[in-house]
Amino acid sequence: MSMLADVREQKRADQAAAEQRRQDAADREAARRRDERAARINRAAVRKADRRASLARYRAAVPGAALSALWATMIVLPICLAWTAQAAFAAETLQIGWPWAHAFPAAIECGAWLCAFESYRRIHRGMPVGSLPRWMWILAGVAAVINASHGIADGGLPAGLALGALSLLGVLLHSIRQSLDADASGAPRRVGLAIWRRVRYPRLSLAAASLRAARELDHATAWRLAWHDRYGVGPDSTLRDRRLGRVIVHREERADRKAAKSGELTLIDGRVQRTQANTVRGFVTAHERAALQTPFAANPDPDSTASNSVTEEVTDPDTTEVRNVGSTGSEQEKLTGRAAALLPALHEAIAAEAIPPNPSVKRIRTWARDYLHEPLGVPTAQALRDAVTGLHLTTDPAQEVP
After folding, report:
1. How far apart are CA 345 and CA 389, in angstroms?
2. What is d(CA 26, CA 98) in angstroms, rounded to the nearest whole number?
3. Cα separation of 347 and 355, whole Å?
4. What share of the chain is helix, strand, coil (3-state, %, to 5)?
5. DSSP line for 108-175
6. What does the alpha-carbon distance between residue 182 and residue 116 come to, in Å, rounded to a whole number?
7. Cα(334)–Cα(256) distance, integer angstroms
8. How far are the Cα atoms of 84, 183, 354 from residue 189, in angstroms, in the given order?
């Protein structure tokens, strides 16, 4: 009996497991069908949204396309009318055969339209158009003059004016559309800006053109340099800064001309630099005044005393410490005359590239020791350094020697 009960129990368990498997399969099939249905609904919704978006794009593009078609029609119509009239003129008046009669309007009109469409292409690519619009108008004007002349010859003044207007009308409409496209794309309108610059700032425009011709600069760099030459500030400055800068530039120009006439400026290696003339004259004048004011009897060595007094009274902040600490009385005595005597030789050494253009005090002393075979003190080397580097030691003899 127990075995029969076990068999029955096993049979019921197998039936229950089979029923569970069928139920699981049915559930999976139902879930799959629900997923497929949801996917179909989602795909349908996406397709519907895409269709709506495409329709919206088409509806939004229709006005622009219609306007572009209208612009193209209005641009092409004058070309066709002028082309037909020019071809008839070539065939009837110039006696050119019909296949080649159309070469006459092509030769007249195509140059201007080539410049026009090249400008259009460059604007859409964000590239500068350069002088293309200017040449477009020049060639269109030549075509208008030719068309007007043969129109007047064939049909009188009204026909000539009509043909000339047709030659310019298409180019005018294309130029208007091109300007609108340039404004919409944010591209700079360089041609209009250049024309307005020439009208508003004629002197600066001429100066910028001269700089471009002399130094091979681009337009922006030459324009900025012209502003700096005239006002001392750039074009992005305020009106107040430009007015004040102009006054300052005039004052500095007058001071520089006065310094050049007095010998304070010189040309070294193609550069304008300050000379040491005033410094040398200041030392000489101070030396002479100190010698006159010092009694000869009270000082057995008047030259040394005068030189020491001059050295103590020159209070340049860059050289006072070196002169008071690192030089001797005999070197100070020979400072002015020796610096003036060595300056031409130092210029020749710089020109021969024996020493660098802006040597240091140590380099000048080394040069004097190696090439002149004589020692050179720090104050004299410092005076030579200031002379060749264009530095101007400000000395006022009237203040140095009371």
Report:
1. 15
2. 84
3. 10
4. 80, 0, 20
5. HHHHHHHHHHHHHHHHHTT---TTHHHHHHHHHHHHHHHHHHHHHHHH-HHHHHHHHHHHHHHHHHHH
6. 13
7. 31
8. 34, 8, 53
CA distances 61 to 139, 276, 309, 336, Å, are: 35, 76, 92, 86
**CA angle 92-95-99, nearest 5°?**
90
Euclidean distance between CA atoms 108 and 144, whole angstroms: 9
Bridge partners for 267 per DSSP: 272
Q: Outline where 265-334 has alpha helix (H).
A: 277-293, 302-313, 320-326, 329-333
pLDDT tens, residue by residue, 227-236:
888 888 888 8
Rounded Cα–Cα distance for residues 94 and 352 (Å): 73
Residue ranges covered by each domain of the chain: 61-200, 202-261, 277-400
231 touches 253 (CB < 8 A): no
The confidence band for 305, taking pLDDT boundaries of 50, 70 and 90, is: very low
Which residues neighbour 134 within 8 Å (Cβ) at sequence distance 6 or greater? 191
Q: What's the CA gap between 331 and 316, in Å, rounded?
A: 18
Report residue 144 as tokens. Answer: 């208008």
Whether 223 contacts 194, CB under 8 Å:
no
Residue pair 290/398 in contact by the 8 Å Cβ criterion? no
- Give how far Cα 246 sits from Cα of 202, 237, 241, 250, 380, Å: 17, 12, 8, 6, 40
Give the residue-averaged pLDDT of 372-390. Answer: 77
pTM of the entire structure?
0.40
Phi, psi of 94 (to 5 degrees): -85, -5
The beta-strand segments (E) located in 195-302 are 265-268, 271-274
Eight-state DSSP code of residue 328: -
Give me the mean pLDDT over the 156-163 stretch: 85
Structure tokens, 109? 């009109």
Most confident of 76-85, 285-294, 391-400: 76-85
Closest CA to 171 of 243, 130, 246, 116: 116
Distance (Å, whole) CA 98 – CA 234: 61
In whole angstroms, how far apart are CA 34 and each of 27, 28, 45? 10, 10, 16
104 in Cβ contact with 94 (< 8 Å) = yes
